[in-house]
Amino acid sequence: MKFIETLKNVWKIEELRNRILVTLGLLLVYRFGAQVVLPGIDAAKLSEFAGKFDDGGIGGLLNAFTGGAFANASVFALGIMPYISASIVVQLMQIAVPYLQKLQKEGESGRKKINQITRWLTIGICLVQAPSYLAGLPALGVPPEAYILGQTPMFYISSVIILVTGCIFAMWLGEKITDKGIGNGISILIMVGIIARLPQSFTQEFASRVLESNGGLIMILIELVIWFIIILASVMLVMAVRKIPVQYARRTASGGYEKNIFGARQFIPLKLNASGVMPIIFAQAIMFVPSAVASLSESDFAQSIQANFSDIFGLWYNVVFAGLIIIFTYFYTAITVPTNKMADDLKRSGGFIPGIKPGTDTAELLDKIMSQITLPGSLFLAFIAIFPAFAVKLFGIQQGWALFYGGTSLLIMVGVAIDTMQQINSYLLNRHYDGLMKSGKNRKQVA
User: Fold this and answer.
1) Cβ contacts of 127 within 8 Å, gap of 6 or more
2) How much is the pTM?
3) Which has more confidence, 225 or 10?
4) What is the second-level CATH architecture of the domain 16-196?
5) How confident is the model at residue 443 (pLDDT cuts 50, 70, 90)?
6) 361: which of 144, 172, 237, 349 lies 20 to 30 Å off by Cα?
7) What is the pLDDT of residues 161-172, one digit of tens each?
8) Is 141 left (phi over 0), alpha (psi -120 to 50) or beta?
9) HSE-up of 424 (CA within 13 Å, CB side)?
10) What CA–CA distance (Å, rounded) separates 403 from 399?
């Protein structure tokens, strides 16, 4: 009843209602585009190609991020991933490039310029990925008869233009969702693409367990319980914070500070996982490299490397993957959590951590605490990232369904869902907060 009442309250707020409807409409456009096959390709003859991505693997991972568009040879086959790659590159360049550092300090105008640079870089990445995708279609299983007009230069040129345009349009949809809708548009597009694969993956797992008498309904029940536990653990990882107590000296009427310490007491929330899913994305991108490089050689060692790093559920792949996640968690936390700036801002606002001198000592303490909580956070993040491999090896879960037991897919779904719910909740709390303020004033006037 409380949930239904909350939905009614959401619908009563006109601005929130309009934003949700805009978001759903734009998502519908994105999902429709994911089903539109590239001109010149016969969609009826892509079944063998699409079937190669049902059992997980690197291709299945890419297909999950695009919501099936990759396997459909769709106009949105590149998805939104080129934009994500460009954003990561620009974010890393801000550390080393003085021009980008200057733009970062210019506020809104600088942010717009950085966004424009990201968009141009996205086009550049698309111009590399689109021909590679088209050239790899025959090797991945697209038969020659699927090309209606043949594999002509005109087909490749037009398809590259369409794929680049599709990615830019998907990027535009994401930005419009952020501006006119609810939540972070780019992240929501990725989440919706991942969720779109969920029913098919679960149906295949259900058929494997029940129809083939491979454990029956009891195994499905056990798998769902484990899945919900992993989701709960992911939520805890995303939401967990270490609260650092902060004391603020109370101001007098003349603007000075009282010498006693009866000021407001607040907290600095330091997140256990301040880097989000970025370490997994960084590590995932690097894990594609060994297999790609090894494929250039025909030696036994190179073939062994390619075999080990092509199996995302294999031992060596997950050992290296977990190690990279831990390293990147420390790296990304160091560049995104400015402890020196936090200490300076705290000092300027008249705040201090009890027992710690403002300034350098405060910055050192915050840095020490961040290092301490990042270790368990990185280990927990690495464990959730490689848990799909445990799901496959220990419980015999099908690879497509196992991708939802951890890794980037699950963390993105959890993170985006929490962020969107918090934005919706803020609208509700703001409306409720106004009412409380008015009633509070009335009570004070009556008194």
Assistant:
1) 160, 164
2) 0.78
3) 225
4) Orthogonal Bundle (1.10)
5) very low
6) 237
7) 999 999 999 999
8) left
9) 21
10) 6
